[in-house]
Amino acid sequence: MSSSEAGTAIAAGVRYGMVVDLRRCTGCQACSVACKAEMDVPLGVFRTWVKQIEKGEYPFVSVSFLPSLCNQCEQPICLRNCPTRATYQLENGIVVVDPHRCIGCKYCIASCPYSVRYLSPLKKIAEKCEFCRHRLEDGLEPACVNTCPTGALVFGDLRDPDSNVSKVLKRNPVQVLKPDRATFPQVYYLAADSEAMEARGASEGQER
After folding, report:
1. Domain range annotation of the chain
2. Is the CA virtual torsion 75, 113, 121, 130 positive or negative?
3. What does the pLDDT profile of the chain (208 residues) look like in tens digits?
4. Spatial distance between the Cα atoms of 150 and 135, rounded to a whole number of angstroms
5. pTM for the model
6. What is the CATH number of domain 3-198?
7. Which of 40-76 are b and which e, b meaning 16 or more Cβ less than 10 Å from the residue's Cβ?
8. What HEC string does the chain produce?
9. How far apart, in whole angstroms, are the C-alpha atoms of residue 192 and residue 132?
């Protein structure tokens, strides 16, 4: 996504989405570090991280990586279960949390099938990835996308057939996490390891 494309995003009525190309992901954690620096995420919690899945037995061992972040679902369960309506969805599809309404009840954290929310140990409210919407408003890409050294994260307008993310989706078969939950995630995975996708369980905690 170009700077001019991002700068006119909200006015153009876009629908943001991301493709994680696992053929390119090396598990370097640059996306996690960039996210923490950009959003001042406290120690012990993450808005995005890269899960590492080891398979096999020595000496026949392989490793798969699975970057995890808010899926910005088209039909988010967290939104439906928030008792104070602190969670809501912007017209561009980004699911956000109103810090003034959130009471830290953890209903949204418990109901998220992807375990990508956390309770801020400092603010005592729910927080998560919001695609760096402040950067989008300034014509910039999300920090994780901008920092990824291998170009594994492709971001843009899903409604624009000429955007990079739309082109990747058109040319490649992709997967989403937990399709059985019918939340219709807008984060897609390319060349995902089936065992890695299944291992990304809803019970996985945020603390590391």
Report:
1. 3-198
2. negative
3. 444 444 444 445 899 999 999 999 999 999 999 999 999 999 999 999 999 988 888 889 988 999 999 999 999 999 999 999 999 999 999 999 999 999 999 999 999 999 999 999 999 999 999 999 999 999 999 999 999 999 999 999 999 999 999 999 999 999 999 999 999 999 999 998 776 676 654 334 343 3
4. 21
5. 0.86
6. 3.30.70.20
7. ebeeebbbbbbeebeeeeeeeeeebbbbbbbbbbeeb
8. CCHHHHHCHHHHCCCEEEEEECCCCCCCCHHHHHHHHHHCCCCCCCCCEEEEEEEEECCEEEEEEEEECCCCCCCCHHHHHCCCCCEEECCCCCEEECCCCCCCCCHHHHHCCCCCCEECCCCCCEECCCCCHHHHHCCCCCHHHHHCCCCCEEEEECCCCCCHHHHHHHHCCEECCCHHHCCCCCEEEECCCHHHHHHCCCCCCCCC
9. 24
Which tokens hold the place of 85?
């309506």
Owner of token pair 């920090």: 143
Residue 116 one-letter amino acid:
V
Residue at 146: amino acid letter = N
